[in-house]
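Ticket #840: bound-state structure for beta-D-glucopyranose.
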Amino acid sequence: MTERTAALPHPGDPAWTLAYEGFAPEQQGLREALTAIGNGYMVSRGALPWERGDDTHYPATYLAGGYNRLITRIAERDIVNEDLVRLPDWSGLMVHFDGENPIDLADTTWREVRHWLDLRHGVLHLSLIATDPSGRETALHLARVVSMDQPHLAALELTLTPLNWSGRVVIDSGLNGHLINAGVKRYRQLSSTHLEATDAATFQAHTDGPDGPGEEEMIALVSTFSQARLRVGQAARTRLLTAEGRSHPVERRDALAEDGRVRHTLTVQMTHGEPVTVEKVAALYTSRDTAISEPGLAAREAVAEAPPASALVAAHGATWERLWQQADVVFEVDDPEVDPATVQMNVRLHIFHLLQTLSPHSADLDVGVPARGWHGEAYRGHVFWDELFILPFLTLHFPEISAAMLRYRARRLPKARAAARAAGHGGAMFPWQSGSDGREESQVMHLNPRSGRWIPDNTWVQRHVSLAIAVNVANHLAATGDQGFLDNFGAELLIDITRFFASLAEHDPATDRYSIHQVMGPDEYHDGYPEGHRLAGRTALSNNAYTNVLVAWLMGTAGDLLAGLEAARRDQIMGRLGIAPEEPDRWAEMAKKMVVPVMDDGVLEQFEGYAELKEFDWEGYRARYGDIQRLDRILEAEGDSANRYKLSKQADALMLCYLFPEPELSHLLERLGVPFGPEAWQRTINTYLARTSHGSTLSYLVHAWVMARSHPEDAWGMFKTALASDLTDVQGGTTAEGIHLGAMAGTVDLVMRGFSGLAVRRAGDTVGLHFDPVANRRVRRLAFRVRFRGHWLGVEQTPDSLTLTPGPDWDPRTPVLVGGRSMPLGPGRPETIRLTGAPA
Ligand code: BGC
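RESOLUTION: The complex was predicted; output attached.
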């Protein structure tokens, strides 16, 4: 047999390509998550098409907001969990050489393995040369998309070229509903069968195929979620094509439909050196989709009408190119320790995954912002407070998507109001974890894999989640000026959250101050006071500084919002929401009288009584354990508790320095009677920098943001860790279970707003854009666009200049300030300002 080399495609521009060489079983889960392809409606992990799922491979497709609830009996309790359901797999394709040897890891040897993601066009590629046990060498190239152009369609093309043989190949192409949720090892003791696969069938459809119109046999599967009763209709079409795109003769075509599974088996004679492409196009609809009669029927019709995969891939790529015109962030760095192209790619990878999770298609769905993307089963696809880090980028690029995410919250206001009522409060109390219907989805127990013990999970008392929603509502309003958003649900969200905190806070007549008890801040390592503490016996914690200061901000913001409305609209909103005239008076008072715990030297105290906790032996634990990110688990396994120590999982008090620049924070605190200023700000930051273990990827991001201004010399290192946290799987295994969307979107926002100091600020009746660039000698060039009140503005920053390029329809009355100085902009006219001050 003579050997021929295959001209396999190669990864392209490294600044636009996430590329892997070779196969590394221990990395496969990570690669699958990072090369997942989606469109804001559904996401498919980047698994190899012939793998069915085991501890190395986990092919899975998830529907945005596709949840189902199951009960498990654990530790003598009924535990109820709502999970993001792993859908029947559309992407499976098995190849048998000579009809016998399946291509798989056990029997096939592989070389020249390349696995890459083309970020510019949204295509997953895999190429390799496989040698089967009989020495047959075959070149394979896979290209896969989940269409950003037609959100119900996905497609793959697998091209096989026999390099040293001619003979028979059998291709197995199916839809498989025999799947359970098994992506997260820690959850494996929990119930996991969510799908009732009901209807597997083949069908004939009239299509305009590669050789002209004709009848084609296709496969279909309709399954139902066991509790949510969501019906999922899928259909697929498999064709064999020659290099010229014509139909390739098929020796035999068999179809097998059994319970929950349906497949086509195509037998084909292959000739040495001649490529054959297997093209699979799949459609997915659910009973929640609009403009359909029935999901099974919609899927069958869509797949019959779908264009060839090559055309789908092209239209998908063109849609991505258009998205990039709005969303790209150019980030050129100069750092001998990193490859500049990798850093640029990393920023784009984050934008890419953000837009695959929440795209213009999501704007029409009833979905929230999932902490781990729709990329895996970690945290069950739930929605936490992570939108605080995610919506800023969307609001300044795709405000229709961020409005839709807030509408997800607004639709769940009745549940949030009921939750507040049940807890004895007014207003709306949003759950810490949210899924389908807005009830509290937090787990009540979680497994510590280190000790093997199931322990109570009290993280649900993080009432600050509602504050994150309020911050986003206020920011959305400021950046868009969208009065319809305000009238339809923005005001309602903001006011009902304000009312909740107004009713949660307790007034102490002795001090004339307002306290908030029974809460937790973002630091999940403290859920109560330890034995022997002055405040032991209280439920959860009192007066978390982040919560209290943000509540004071909210009280002021809600009052200002109402006061700033023209009288008729104010009356209308007050009437509709039944706001009693004395309510805004109480808000105004709370804006000045919330308790803010402060330690010696004016350092903000994470919560009341934090100062009395023990110092932690950081060095000792680092020496003993190496990786001490998850100190909660380490200490619990030792029979100890993180509650006893001055240590934090993630930024908590420092969240205030993340949300507010120092002068604004100082102003806010001064209004509360707390003297603050640059020195107290710096001391507060130093205190917590030294006492945080970064058990959440959000922590690196917040610290990097804060350090950019407080510790410019060390900030770059923290920034690099934050940016690479998913790429390098900094938590050692978590990314495989789902990307960290907060850290991803937050680092892009950090590059964009953190380095340029971009803020949307209100001054009296006008809202303007403020820039306060941080000069960093490692950042050679930063360029992006933002959309402010419907108009685009180009921003380009170098170590010594800032150039602003307004679009042709820019409103010249928009206040624009750079470093506090006014910089009026005319439509379409770029302006450059020299930056002074030595870069860090
Ligand atoms: C963090 C939370 C975050 C959640 C989801 C947790 O580990 O502590 O702040 O909301 O992950 O990303």
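RESOLUTION NOTES: The pocket of beta-D-glucopyranose is lined by residues 371, 379, 384-386, 522, 524, 649-650, 696, 698, 742 (CB under 6 Å).
TICKET STATUS: resolved
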